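Exercise 7. Given the encoded structure of a 228-residue chain, write a plausible sequence.
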């Protein structure tokens, strides 16, 4: 039997988020996809399915998140904080690491997850799963320093994931983070090892296998446990 649960995916208009939408629909899930800008969302808009609802939402604009929260009818079983940016490659000594750009990465990647989770908490179903899309680049043990603040943002994502998992333990809500693999998207670039479809297929399977005992943990896209 097809899975009738509801999944909400942020940053659903392109890259990994768009493929998560498509794979969720294949699995039978009801899908709520959010996009920041209609102009960049042509492929998402083209998907015709009664099971897909799309909403405009910027993860760092609380009003826009609340608006979506008010307008969704079904309780959410899987809340996927996927939206993210890396506008700062190189080291902190390079121009890409201006104060403004560093704040933007931290704001969208970290606070975007916090604001999304805070405002959708009332929409969550019993035993819901919250998944933050993190990265292997957030691991403390790493060599190389490119994208210093992006790395820091994903380390913070894993850290807030643990805190939120503790906060929601008594409600039996599972909170985890996932590395999606190195994926051929605008962010991952053309040399990445996985297509967005391969990453999303594997991620959806892993999300559907999550159990409450997994709360507070960081996983690879294939469901194997990762260290922080
Ligand atoms: P893309 O750059 O292809 O897509 C990023 C998505 O995030 C877009 O939909 C974008 O929307 C959205 N987004 C950015 N800022 C906001 C915002 N303020 N509000 C709402 N949506 C926003 O990246 P990927 O698909 O590759 O990345 C998805 C996630 O996976 C990110 O969190 C990334 O850090 C993570 N990741 C990716 C890896 C890879 O190899 N690709 C590796 C490890 C982690 P818009 O079109 O409006 O810009």
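Solution.
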């Amino acid at each position: 039997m097809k899975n009738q649960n509801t999944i909400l995916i942020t940053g659903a208009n392109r890259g990994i988020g768009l493929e998560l939408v498509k794979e969720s629909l294949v699995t039978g899930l009801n899908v709520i996809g959010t996009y920041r800008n209609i102009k960049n969302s042509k492929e998402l808009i083209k998907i015709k399915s009664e099971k897909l609802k799309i909403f405009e939402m910027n993860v760092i604009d609380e009003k826009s998140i609340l608006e979506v929260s008010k307008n969704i009818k079904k309780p959410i079983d899987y809340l996927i904080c996927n939206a993210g940016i890396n506008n700062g490659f190189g080291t902190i000594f390079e121009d890409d690491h201006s104060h403004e750009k560093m704040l933007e990465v931290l704001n969208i990647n970290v606070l975007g997850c916090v604001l999304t989770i805070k405002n959708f908490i009332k929409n969550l179903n019993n035993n819901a799963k919250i998944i933050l899309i993190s990265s292997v680049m957030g691991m403390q043990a790493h060599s190389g320093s490119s994208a210093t603040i992006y790395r820091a943002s994903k380390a913070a994502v894993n850290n807030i994931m643990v805190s939120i998992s503790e906060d929601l333990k008594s409600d039996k809500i599972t909170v985890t983070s996932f590395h999606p693999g190195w994926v051929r998207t605008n962010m991952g670039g053309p040399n990445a090892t996985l297509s967005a479809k391969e990453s999303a297929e594997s991620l959806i399977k892993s999300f559907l296998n999550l159990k409450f005992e997994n709360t507070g943990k960081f996983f690879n896209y294939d469901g194997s446990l990762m260290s922080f």
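Remark. The pocket of NDP is lined by residues 10-11, 13-17, 36-37, 40, 58-60, 82-85, 108, 112, 133, 135, 179-180, 182-183, 185-188, 192 (CB under 6 Å). Students should compare their own answers with the one above.
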